[in-house]
Specification:
Shape: globular
Helix content: under 10%
Radius of gyration: 18 Å
Distance between the termini: 17 Å
Number of helices: 0
Length: 235
Amino acid sequence: ISLGWGIDHTINAHFSPDGSKIVFMGVPEGNHNFFSWDIYLWDLFSGLPTNLTANNGLRDEDPKFSPNGSEVIFKQNGDLKVMDLNGNIIGHTTNDGFSIEESMPYYKNDNQYIIYANGAGITSDIYLINKDGTDSQPLENATNIQEYYPIIRSNLTFLYTRWVSAANHHDQIYLGYFNGDNAQSLPFNVDSANDSDPFPVNSNYVFFSSDRSANSGWDLYLADINSSTTWSMDE
């Protein structure tokens, strides 16, 4: 898809609710420094993508559409920002820079609250915050365990990735609850491999990436969320 766009490292794409557009992060071709990352918008029925954050000298990452399709939440220099589809910043959800890194935001279905990763590495936890920056609250904050990449599954639940334990740093996929119930490790996890990047299909199935297959690197899988059954999505 991105061949010929003049954009390197095109990753983390997210579809608009109507399926007509994607937002993604990438760097201008050949420009690979720390602050080169930008947010791009591509209309599937048009030509080249639009760089929404061009020439701002800031590190722009992790874009996600709002449920109504009119906004994009993203990470800019360690903070969460909201912009319209023309690239205008219309909201500052956090303002502490890299002192506490906020990343991987995802809108709840109410279009108002954002689930995200607060901190980095061993200090990374899952938080919920109003997009205006108020009412910040931890959802999953196990001590000395990395918890990150939250994805909304329903009004009641979300998926996220976390270490097996403080001693075992393999990634596992967990089901979290907004009402405070204990999160559950999903039954298809393999604690000797990395199972990461969940994306729900519906209430029964989830896509994820894993390095569980020896000597093949990372691959995509489909899993039954209620059992240990998985299917490899090999070509």
